Every structure is written in C-alpha cells, then in structure tokens.
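tool_call: predict_structure(chain=1)
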Amino acid sequence: MKKIFTLIACTFTLVANAQQKMNTFYVVDSLSGKPVASTAVTIVRAKLSITTEQDGIFKIPGDLSRMLDTVILNTQTYIPFKIPLNALSNMDTIRLTRYTIEINNQKVKYKDDTLLNDYRKQDIVHYAGINTETANFEYLQLAQQFYTSKPGVFLKEITLNRLAFGLDLSDHTWTGLVYLDRTKFRVRIYDIDPITHGPGRDLCTKIIEEKKSSGSQVSINLKKYNIVIPGTTFFVAVEWLRDFYNAGYSITYNPKEKKMTRMPNYHPAIGISAATGEKVNIWALNFKHEWKPFSYFMPFGTDLAMSAVIKY
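tool_result:
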C-alpha cells in the first residue's frame, strides 16, 4: 500500500490546492535495488511521520521545489538519510545504505538468568504516548536504558506494559464506548552511542514486530535473534508505526480556543514504572531524529514499565 502524507495539505499553505502534483518516491537498498520496507519517513518542522510498508513507497502532494522543510528517512540497520524537502523535487528514488552489524556466531553456554528493571504491574498509573493538557506526544520512539554488571550478556526476553483499552471517539462526542486497543509496534535494540550516551546503532538485524490485541502485558521472546550486548549498557525501544492501523485520537484542552480538542494520536500507550530517582533512564527520539532524555514524568517516572531478562 502506498503511503501518503494526507495531513501535509493542512500544514503547508503552499500545497493547499488539492489539485497539485502528487510526488511518488521509492525507498530502495543502495546495493540490491530492492524496496526497503518499514522506513520511518519524517518531515521535521511539520512534525509529520509515516512508516512505509513492504513496497517501500510513499507520496507527498504539492510543489516540493517551493517547500522549506527537511525529510529524514530512518529504518533498522540503515544509515539515516536526511535531505531538504525541495531537493526531492527532481527525484523519485531514495537509496539507503546499510551499515554492518557484527553478529555473534560463537556458541556460548549461558547459565544464569537475571531480571533487569523489575516493576509491579499494579503500580502503573501513567502512560507515555498520549497527548495531554500540558504537552503533545511528539516522539517516534521511546527507549529504556538497561545496565549489566559485565559485557557479553545474552538478551533473552523483554516484557512491557501498555494501555489495553481506549475510547471510541468516532461519534465526535466526549463519551464513547470503551474498546480493546488493537495495535502493533516494533522493538529496536540499541547499543550506546559513545558521544551522546543515548541509543546508538542497532544490535539486531531482524525486524521485531509485535501485534497485541488483548491484555496489558506483552512478553517478547528474543532468543531466536541471538542478541549479545557488547558493553555494560543497552537500550530497548518501542517504535511507533504511524499508519492508519495505529491511528487514533486523544482529548486535550486547547487554552487558545478555550475548549476540548480531539488530537491525532498513535497507539500504543506505554506504561511508566513507579520507580523514582534523580537519573532518568528513558530516552525519546524526536522529529529531528535526536535522542533526548525523556523527563516528562520526573521525578516519579524515571523508567518505562519494561523489564529484560538476560543470560550470563
């Protein structure tokens, strides 16, 4: 299915005319020429982002040569691609370059399991991923930082909690039916970046996608991915798939208009642990594709409601 930035016409005055040109782009691997699926395509200043499907195609309407914004393409195991929006006016193919991930092929016998960042499900009262009265959620990924006592551990499993229910607002009223939140998301495993000390390169070559239609707790077995942590810290991130399947709305108060407003929102909403402390262990990827500490819930919410099982 072709992905279209349907909201751009509302954001850019230059493309307000619905009869303007529709620009089609193909995201392909620089060596093989094959489509690169699951690419996050982000228009930075407009704060718009979509995820391509298997065909690697997306579309942008309007006269791109007159648009003053930046496009960033980011997908697992590929070097992020950044280009001015007006430079796309003479292009139809975007070639991404894959970077090398060292795979551990040694057969190592791990004996002991250790649970990192344990939390109590019943203590979760806050969720990230929802627009609130004080701030819109304007991030593409949230990552939990984990710490190990030594390098070379094997990542066996992760567990996280999400908001399992939502409100049906399709009737444009403020009181809708409660429904079971059906969603899908991707999990990214990152090494530490030596410069920013936030998430760096991927540690997994395979796409980890989870579909969860019932229950608030999600456990994902990672043994088949053979993920070995090279250092003593790593990050596990939830990547929002910004597509029609995950699209929804949240209700926030607009102080300028002095009324409640329905704002676009993407599922899932990820739980915040009841942990407290001075150091935040949550990192957020913004629309500029910069990783920053996520301190919105501080000092209460230093960690996501996410745990990991490692083997020594």
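agent: The chain has one helix and 25 strands. Proceeding to next step.
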